[in-house]
Amino acid sequence: MRVEYLGTKGTWREVADSANTTIHKDAGTKEPSSQWKRKMLLCEHSPIRQIFIKCKWYDLKSWVSVHFVRHKIGIEHWVRTQRVDRTGINRDELPQGNEVEHEILADVQAIINISRKRLCNQASKETRDAWQAVLDSLKEEQPELYNVCVPDCIYRGWCYEYKSCGYHQTPQFQDRLKKYREGIND
């Protein structure tokens, strides 16, 4: 399985201008700082939904693809068809491990939300790895977004799962939580 980052639609300048509109200020001219972007992402203010990330998985297991298509808010999915009239293969005979191509276009709010569920240790390893590959593919272009994409236990500061993996009781959890919260109130 591999992921290709297909680009970003929308700019941080547009996000900043919309944020200024909401607080009755004029549009600015300078590019927002990395710290400002991080705070906007952590606060999850509505203007962040103007930035869209486009990625595509190749050779993604069909059953893993199903985990992602369950996410519906702020994201669109295009999954390669398995229709017999298009492929010549009876899809009733295809195993769940059959590989598909799966393309997404998601706003950054959706990327944050999906990360909370799909980076959790209760998600399958294959699903975690597939989502981590998406995040890794956009890291260079969107480092602030990459750094706020965390599992729910980090996002909330505790684990709410019925059957916890126990990660929230480790020193590694405390270190990661501290790093995630850095600069929030600066």
Name its key features.
186 residues, alpha+beta, Gyrase A, domain 2, 2 domains, 4-stranded antiparallel β-sheet, 43% helix
Could you characterize the architecture of this molecule?
With 186 residues, the chain is of the alpha+beta class. It has two domains: 148 residues, 2-Layer Sandwich (Gyrase A, domain 2), CATH 3.30.1360.170; 36 residues, no CATH class. The chain contains nine helices and four strands. A four-stranded antiparallel β-sheet has the order 1-2-4-3. The radius of gyration is 18 Å and the shape is flat. The N and C termini lie far apart (40 Å).
Main sheet: which strands, in order across? 1-2-4-3
The overall pLDDT, averaged over residues, is: 94
What is the number of domains?
Answer: 2
| Integer-rounded radius of gyration | 18 Å
Share of helix, binned: 40-55%
Shape: flat
**What share of residues are in beta strands?**
15-25%
Quick summary of this structure?
Helices cover 43% and strands 17% of the residues. It contains 9 helices and 4 strands; from the N terminus they run βααβαβαβααααα.
Task: Describe the SSE topology.
Blueprint: E1 2-9, H1 12-22, H2 34-43, E2 52-61, H3 62-69, E3 75-79, H4 84-87, E4 99-107, H5 108-118, H6 125-138, H7 143-148, H8 152-156, H9 171-181
Antiparallel strand pairs: 1-2, 2-4, 3-4
